[in-house]
């Protein structure tokens, strides 16, 4: 099913991953205060010098395709683990580390904020793989059991990607 990429404007036939550019906390802090209170890169975020977040990929297997569907999400990290990650950015030899999901995946009713996760670190310039704690939350079930390609496209269209 083709879609028009919001980034490049081209039509693609492959399933896109979705991602949050900023953690939810970004939107909770008044715009005028963000520059003073937040240090954000494409992979890390520090808020008020005491809240540490990293960006990772939450993958959902597809039940009828050999691919996975990915969400770029932010998860919290305790200070020590955050600094371990910075010092070993391209290593799979650290972690996994616990974190709270800090990204709203709005296509899931009831919200996804503050679900328990584990960040599994990877080499090869890949973002950490985020695994949701196995619970009865629909996101945890989807990550554990997989979804159809049609459901993945519904999620893509929910976010307005055409």
Verbal overview:
Helices cover 24% and strands 29% of the residues. The chain starts with a strand and ends with a helix. The longest helix has 10 residues, at 149-158. The chain has 162 residues and is of the alpha+beta class. The protein has one domain (17-151). The chain has 5 helices and 10 strands, in the order E-E-E-H-H-E-E-E-E-H-E-E-E-H-H. Strand 6 (51-61) and strand 7 form a beta hairpin. The strands form 2 sheets. Strands 3, 4, 5, 6, 7, 8, 9 and 10 form an 8-stranded mixed sheet that branches. A two-stranded antiparallel sheet has the order 1-2. The mean pLDDT is 91. The protein has helices at residues 24-28, 31-37, 79-87, 138-145, 149-158, and strands at 3-4, 11-12, 18-19, 38-40, 44-47, 51-61, 68-77, 97-100, 116-120, 129-132. It is globular, with a radius of gyration of 16 Å.
How many angstroms does the end-to-end distance come to? Answer: 10 Å
Total number of distinct structural domains: 1
Strand proportion, as a percent range, falls in 25-35%
pLDDT < 50 runs, ≥5 residues: none
The helix-strand sequence is EEEHHEEEEHEEEHH
Number of beta-strand segments: 10
- Biggest sheet, in brief? 8 strands, mixed
Mean pLDDT over the residues: 91
> Helicity range of the residues?
10-25%
Structural class: alpha+beta
Cα gyration radius (Å): 16 Å
Q: Given the structure, what is the number of helices? A: 5
Quick one: overall form? globular
């Amino acid at each position: 099913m083709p879609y028009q990429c919001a980034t490049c404007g081209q039509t693609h036939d492959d399933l896109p991953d979705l991602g949050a550019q900023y953690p939810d906390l970004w939107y909770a802090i008044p715009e005028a205060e963000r520059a003073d209170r937040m240090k954000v890169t494409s992979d890390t975020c520090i808020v008020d010098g005491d809240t540490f977040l990293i960006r990772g990929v939450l993958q959902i297997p597809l039940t009828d395709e050999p691919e996975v569907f990915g969400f770029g999400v932010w998860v919290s990290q305790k200070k020590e683990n955050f600094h371990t990650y910075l010092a070993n950015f391209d290593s799979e030899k650290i972690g996994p580390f616990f974190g709270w999901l800090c990204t709203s995946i709005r296509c899931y009713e009831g919200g996804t904020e503050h679900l328990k996760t584990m960040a599994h670190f990877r080499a090869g310039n890949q973002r950490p793989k985020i695994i949701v704690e196995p619970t009865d939350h629909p996101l945890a079930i989807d990550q554990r059991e997989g979804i159809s390609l049609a459901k993945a496209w519904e999620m893509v269209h929910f976010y307005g990607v055409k």
